[in-house]
Hints:
There is one protein chain. This protein is mainly α. It has one domain (7-41). It has one helix at 8-40. The longest helix has 33 residues, at 8-40.
Amino acid sequence: MNRCRYRGKAGDTVNVVWATLAWNTKKIVQLARAKAERLNGRNLPAIA
Length: 48
């Protein structure tokens, strides 16, 4: 939390919410791509 741009308790909360949102979005995309690969029977290009 030392690198957080927002200060105070509210800032820490905002930082955690954004990090959680980013992590979950990435996970949802990975799961959707894996499902599409299973359904289509082919590999799709990797996401960085």
